[in-house]
Structure formats: C-alpha cells, structure tokens
Specification:
This protein has 211 residues and is α+β, with helices and mostly antiparallel strands. It has helices at 3-21, 45-50, 130-133, 175-181, 186-194, 198-207, and strands at residues 29-30, 39-43, 55-62, 66-75, 80-89, 94-102, 105-110, 116-120, 150-156, 172-174. α1 (3-21) crosses α6. 35% of the residues are buried. Residues 1-8, 10-31 and 124-147 have low confidence and may be disordered.
Length: 211
C-alpha cells in the first residue's frame, strides 16, 4: 500500500469521523427534536447528538459533484452513532459507505474498500476535534459536504444494538497496526503531507502533528 493511499485513508477516516460526529459549526437550527414522533431537523449531526434522544434520521444532499443519501442512527445519548450512506458521483457511479462509532472505537467500510478499518479514537483530537478535521475535502470524503443546511427527517426508534456491531463478513484492519507495519515514520508521513495541496495538505499535516 503506497504512502499516499495511507495518507488518504487517515484523512478520510479521521476527517470523516470527526465531521460525521460534529459538524463544522456548533450553532444549530432545529425544529421538533424535543417532542416525539416524526420530526424534521435542519442542521448538522452535532444537533442530533445533543438532543439526547434515540433517533433514526434520513437525509439527502446534492451539489454539483455528487448526491448523497443516507440514514443516521443515534443511541445512548449520542455515544453510539451509525451512518449508512449512498453516494452517486457525476459519472453515475454509486458508492456505499458505513461508519460506526461506539464510544472511542470506530469502524469504517464501504463498497470502494477491499477491507474495513478499525481504529481507536483519541476523543480529544480526532472525532471531537472540529477544527482539525472538519474541512476534509469532499472528493475524498463523501460526508464532508453535509453542512448545517441539511434537512433530516427523524423519528424515535427502539435501539437495536446489532446496528452498532460491525459486519462479520468484512475483514477489519487495525489502523494503528497498519501504520506501524508500513514502516513509515512520522517524518516520512510529514514529507508526504507536504507534497499534497490545499485542504488535503492542511488536514494531513494536522493529522500527523507536523511542524
């Protein structure tokens, strides 16, 4: 696996996880989340988690490059989250992507990946660090475009903990072990990051704490 692919996986998973859990803005606009039954909510996923409710929410989003539709499941006061996404690109290719976070353990898999990735999150610096990972480029992260103007249709659900169990037919690679076995030290990672451009470069440098 090339250094660039490792970098992109890192940015994708950590960036995706961070954005998936907490949107770019902490200011949310919502309607009906305090009540019961089916409600609509306009904002970011952070608002769903802050509601404290067990919810199943559906959404769709489109821009000039892709269309994303999916379902988000929230449970246990926002400590358990799952997102299943279908992303259709301009060439009509469709990718499926799923993310589970249960506490500080995250799983990521999809149709474009031969294997899934499992990683332990540093909650202070990854999944909850909006400044570091919120601006992941949409070309490498299909959920990065879900900003505060996305409308969700939500309803309460009886939590099925099986939804937060990764699939048994997917082989998950431990991200930390993968990085260690790659033989790439931090200096090499930073040198590779320096060769990227724009937001990809910024996110990569932040990810590996490059000076």
């Amino acid at each position: 696996m090339s250094k660039l692919i490792l970098i992109l996986i890192a940015v994708l998973v950590l960036g995706g996880g961070g954005y998936f859990l907490y949107s770019r803005s902490q200011t949310q606009t919502s309607s009906g989340l305090e009540g019961s039954g089916t409600t609509s909510f306009t904002g970011g996923i952070a608002g769903l988690l802050k509601s404290g409710r067990d919810m199943q929410c559906e959404f769709s989003y489109a821009d000039e490059t892709m269309m994303t539709a999916g379902t988000v499941y929230v449970a246990n006061g926002g400590q358990k989250v799952r997102g299943d996404f279908d992303t259709t690109l301009t060439d009509e290719e469709t990718m499926t992507t799923s993310i589970i976070q249960d506490g500080k353990i995250a799983y990521y898999w999809g149709s474009a990946m031969e294997q899934g990735i499992k990683m332990e999150l540093d909650l202070d610096k990854s999944a909850f660090d909006t400044d570091s990972y919120a601006n992941t480029n949409s070309t490498t992260n299909p959920v990065a475009n879900l900003e505060d103007n996305v409308e969700y249709d939500c309803r309460g659900w009886v939590v099925d903990n099986r939804m937060f169990t990764p699939p048994s037919d997917v082989e998950f690679i431990d991200f930390a072990a993968m990085m260690e076995n790659s033989g790439l030290d931090n200096a090499m990672m930073c040198a590779t990051c320096a060769g990227l451009e724009g937001e990809d470069k910024t996110n990569c440098l932040q990810l590996f704490s490059c000076e």
